[in-house]
Amino acid sequence: MRKHLLSIDDVSADDAVTLFATAAEMHDVQSRQVKKLPALRGRTIINLFFEDSTRTRSSFEIAGKWLSADTINIAAKGSSASKGESLRDTVLTIAAMGVDALVMRHPASGAALQVSQWIDAAVINAGDGTHEHPTQALLDAYTLQRRLGGPGSLEGKRIAIVGDLTHSRVFRSNVLLLTKLGASVTVVAPPTLMPSGVGSWSREAGFATSYDLDEVLPTADAVMMLRVQRERMTGGYFPSAREYTVGYGLTRDRLRLLGPDVPICHPGPMNRGLEIAADAADAAQSAVLEQVSAGVAIRMAILYHLLAGDEA
Amino acid sequence: MSETTLVKGASLYGDRTADLLLRDGVIAEIGSISTPDGARIVDADGLIALPGLVDLHTHLREPGREDAETILTGSRAAAVGGYTAVLAMANTSPVTDTAEAAERVHDLGRAAGLVDVHPVGAVTGGLGGEELAELGLMHRSRARVSVFSDDGRCVADARVMRRALEYVKAFGGVVSQHAQDPSLAGPTSCCHEGELSGRLGLPGWPGIAEEVVVARDVMLARHTGSRVHVAHASTAGTVEVLRWAKSLGIEVTAEVTPHHLLLTTDLLAGYDPTYKVNPPLRPQEDVDALRAALADGTIDAVATDHAPHARHDKEHAFVDAAFGMLGLETALPVVASVMVSSGLMTWAEVARVMSSTPAAIAGLGSQGRPLEVGQPANLVLVDPAATLVVDRERSVSLSRNNPWHGRTLGASVVATFLRGRPTVLGGELTEP
Predict the structure, then answer these.
(1) Which 3 state secondary structure label does DSSP give B412?
(2) Fewer CB in a 10 Å sphere around the end CB: N or C, chain B?
(3) What ipTM does this complex have?
């Protein structure tokens, strides 16, 4: 892996295999009574969140603490930035406090990449606008791999990613990683929620697009539902919540189109009844809570390889 | 005190070679001239003489953001770039929407004394898009404002645009439109909408947002019988609309920036806000259409959209960073590299699109005049063989948001004369 984790472009297929193997070891720590490894003792990790987040921030915080790092959370929303300070000045100030890794979430696409050019610490992108969320993609792929038969099992699997693709950083990272790992990905959304230029992008990157969820689901080996951001519903992207659910929701009826062993993923928080029916969210095949616990293991693996990898 | 300069052996418009005698602010003589007593001699062997350049679209930031540029520093940048007149856009703070504000810009330009600074008046009060600014009073002021623009914002309301076009007919004014339908490309739209914006997750600014406004405005110009000017045209679709409108005899003119003639949207892959500009950089097919349109006259002029910004205004996340890039000092080298070196245009045609036509659009009688005896001695000497590696730290602008930094461009400005007086000699400023 490179110094930073800004995009799935920074992770090769071999890197992912290594991370998954490390994550599997880290996963075991979660079931221990004493959840602590000494690997990052004396290291300082700052979670710098310019945007609200509960699960990602907590996941990184726990991951850092279980590796014995000093983790500090800074919620930058409404602080220096709102006083007119430039992003560069904000992160230089924080970096000057002595930090080994900066875990950063920002509402603007590309912010993590820009910051990595300004500071010496390792930068981990915990979600930048509608661009990427690489650690989510890694935990999703790790979860699916465990569900689908272990290491190497994503090769040739048909995976559907469904929902608001235009505004989804989870989609952008997942489609890159899953295709890199040999999966056959089809993304499904109404035309208004397909990213611009997706036609040529999909041809080049090797994934398929569809407007028809009912056509895609019967052959899917796994389904990833994306959250519909409620604020989008007034943006003219689709006529009503009801119409969206009928067209693109994982409803009770559609659940029947899936085989019983087809895992259902969702990055959360879920809009039950909109993009995913309660029956689907709570089905035995739902992997939603597994994704959360896998998230800690994957983030432990990432922090370990970025900060202690050379010494290990 | 009158000043006499003999420019020896310049190639006029890249064609015939002659000496030019500049005296009392005019071109006094052209031909083979022996040196008059006391005259300054400028050796122009190998240099091309063109009329002084005229920029229809400059942001000088004064009043309000003097940390980014002042009328003096912007004038310096203009002179170094070969300009003898610039039109200073109205989106300052406060906005140039009154006679008093226009006169202040005009007076500061005169005090700087390096180029003629003509204020552009706002179309609507405070650039609010709703009520017409005092267009007539600005025209009657000593600034003699003839070009009006809410640049930075589109006059989106068709009724307001219609009234503005009608109103300026009374004094031969022109409305310069920043064509950006805000419902298709809103305030967060920060780069060309296409495959790259889709991949990068950046809010797109589709070309259609420009084209629908240009199409509407040419119809309004036809309806009102007035003149509309399209600022910074950026798409092939706009070129198509312009070509069609001109074929019908509609009074529409258009400008293109140097950066839209050379830079493409793929530069945004690294999220570098240096390349964030409004309208955004477009794909190569748009660039090719703009070049062809400039060469065949569908696009009338090159204008810089010189937009200086303090460093900290660009050191934000891409979507939050300021729009705009520097342009005055590099416009001619860019046009030379793109249009002349490629054979798309001659130097005489460069003079048309960078001097005489912009002067005519803005109604500037003493600028953009041909290099002939009796005409004002506003001219620029260009070394067509020089190559310039752009170094943003060498800029005379106060700002450093220079998209050309590190690039090699062809041709360089050696000297600029404003009414016979050198403002630049040997590539260096000669302050009055």
Answers:
(1) strand
(2) N
(3) 0.90
Count other C-beta atoms under 10 Å from residue B151's C-beta: 24
Rounded Cα–Cα distance for residues B76 and B416 (Å): 11
Phi and psi angles of residue B389, each rounded to the nearest 5 degrees, phi first: -95, 115
- Tokens encoding B22: 């500049």
Q: In the structure encoding, which two tokens stand for residue B153, read together?
A: 């914002």
> Beta strand A264-265 with B116-119: parallel, antiparallel or unpaired?
unpaired
Mutate to test the interface with B, among A50, A89, A92, A109 (most CBs of B within 10 A): A109
User: What is the Cα–Cα distance from A206 to A179, expressed in whole angstroms?
Assistant: 7
DSSP state of B386: E
Q: Which residue has the tokens 């790790």?
A: A142
Euclidean distance between CA atoms B354 and B382, whole angstroms? 13
The whole-number pLDDT of residue A88 equals 96
Q: How many residues does chain B have?
A: 432
From chain A, the residues in CB contact with B194 under 8 A are 196-197
* DSSP classification of residue A265: E
Query: Do β-strands B428-429 and B228-230 pair in parallel, antiparallel, or remain unpaired?
Result: unpaired
Q: Residue B429 CA to chain centroid, in angstroms?
A: 20
Residue A220 in contact with residue A159, Cβ under 8 Å? yes
Taking contacts as CB-CB distances below 8 angstroms, the residues of chain B near A234 are none
The position carrying tokens 């994982």 is A250
The pTM score is 0.94
Cα–Cα–Cα angle for B186, A192, B204, nearest 5°?
A: 35
> Which stretches does DSSP call E strand in A68-112?
70-75, 101-106
Q: Which of B191, B178, B102 is nearest to B142 (CA)?
A: B102
- What tokens were used for A300? 């432990």
Nearest to B129 by CA among B172, B175, B84: B175
The count of other CB atoms within 10 Å of the CB of residue B38 is 8
Q: Is B91 annotated as a binding residue?
A: yes
pLDDT digits (tens, 9 = 90+) for B9-34: 999 999 999 999 999 999 999 999 99
How is A17-29 classified by DSSP, letter by letter?
A: HHHHHHHHHHHHH
Q: What's the pLDDT tens digit per position in B118-155?
A: 999 999 999 999 999 999 999 999 999 999 999 999 99
Chain A: residue whose CA lies nearest to B310 = A86
Could you give the CA distance from residue A135 to residue A117 in angstroms, rounded to a whole number? 20
DSSP A68: T
B200 contact A CB<8A: yes
Q: Do A307 and A299 meet the contact criterion of CB atoms below 8 Å apart?
A: no
